[in-house]
Amino acid sequence: xxxxxxxxxxxxxxxxxxxxxxxxxxxxxxxxxxxxxxxxxxxxxxxxxxxxxxxxxxxxxxxxxxxxxxxxxxxxxxxxxxxxxxxxxxxxxxxxxxxxxxxxxxxxxxxxxxxxxxxxxxxxxxxxxxxxxxxxxxxxxxxxxxxxxxxxxxxxxxxxxxxxxxxxxxxxxxxxxxxxxxxxxxxxxxxxxxxxxxxxxxxxxxxxxxxxxxxxxxxxxxxxxxxxxxxxxxxxxxxxxxxxxxxxxxxxxxxxxxxxxxxxxxxx
Length: 268
Prior knowledge:
Layout: H1 20-52, H2 58-63, H3 69-94, H4 99-102, H5 111-131, H6 141-153, H7 158-191, H8 199-214, H9 222-239, H10 243-261
């Protein structure tokens, strides 16, 4: 009787991407989707601004510390169009045509336990430990680290904050995990295939984490995002599906939203 093999997103356990060349194409699709997402975000932003009569102030509004909710939504939706387009085209052009199969988009009951534990620990344990040595060198580090979350969710009235929070906690994790731990990680796994059964996955997970961090355009937060992104990559590789990472990502974002919404509460 043949031994039972562990489920994994490793190229050896799946049929796509099939070659290193395919892996490189997957990565190219991811880059294209990211760039397209930036373009769609800008187009939506200017279109909505023109409709609202705020076209002359669009640059100021977009760069303010707490932009209006419609500015944030335009940015998110534009990115999602590009990201989901990359996932779709990758699956159709160099996959099986099934996004669920190609991206390992699967959720199991235990994912609802494993994911939130990792996500909360990432925000409340991992990040403080990572940035603890830097507190002596960077003034007001905690305040500066919270600025991106405040830019995304801060300063909104109740209804707007609720909408942004739902998008950040429910939609963002699914879309980003499909792109980064679906397309990017699997592309890197194939590109690094042949470098060793251990070294290859390590390189792929680390590279995906760095790409995930860089994609957020936050220099100070790059360390934390890259390390957490690498953790999400390890989860996707080890479990062979995106479910645990999606819930970890959601919990990670939820803690950030709660800290901004309730700065004097127990989570702050």
